[in-house]
Write a structure and sequence with these properties.
By secondary structure, this protein is of the alpha/beta class. It has one domain: Nucleic acid-binding proteins (OB fold (Dihydrolipoamide Acetyltransferase, E2P)), CATH 2.40.50. About 25% of the residues lie in helices and about 35% in strands. It has five helices and six strands; from the N terminus they run H-H-H-E-E-E-E-H-H-E-E. The protein has a five-stranded mixed barrel.
């Protein structure tokens, strides 16, 4: 069984894997795309343009957030948070609500040690066929 088959079987059978995170298998490719690890974000300056990526583990759209959507993307080092403006969400609704892995390009912000990326562009990441599950607002 190769690594992809193992990931698919693990997630199908248990909803998780005891092996490496799916993003770990693609790290060289992700690095070539300029996608930063979640663990790197705390050391970067506020206002830096960058790309993050990972498995979408939560999608939140609180009624009090004026249409903003909050995503949590997990990679092999931790969780990175992204803030999606209402207009960007509407332009990319299907992508943002259905893709299991996403890449987000935007501006890093660190407010009181709460680190997130203000999304300006989103795209799917083809990491694995494994059926990962997220906790969503809908």
């Amino acid at each position: 069984m190769n690594q992809e088959e193992r990931l698919v079987a693990d997630f199908h059978g248990t909803g998780l894997t005891v092996g490496p995170h799916p993003m770990a298998y693609k790290r060289d490719w992700l690095n070539a795309m300029g996608i930063r690890r979640a663990s790197e974000l705390r050391d970067l300056p506020t206002g830096k343009r960058l790309r993050i990526g990972g498995c979408v583990i939560t999608r939140q759209r609180p009624g009090t957030a004026k249409g903003f959507v909050f995503l949590s993307l997990e990679d092999e080092t931790g969780v990175a948070n992204a803030i999606v403006r209402p207009d960007l969400f509407h332009e990319n609704r299907l992508l943002l609500t259905s893709e299991r892995f996403l890449a987000i390009e935007g501006i890093l912000q660190n407010q009181d040690n709460v680190i997130s990326v203000r999304a300006e562009r989103v795209q799917p990441l083809f990491v694995t066929k494994a059926e990962t599950v997220s906790h969503d607002f809908h």
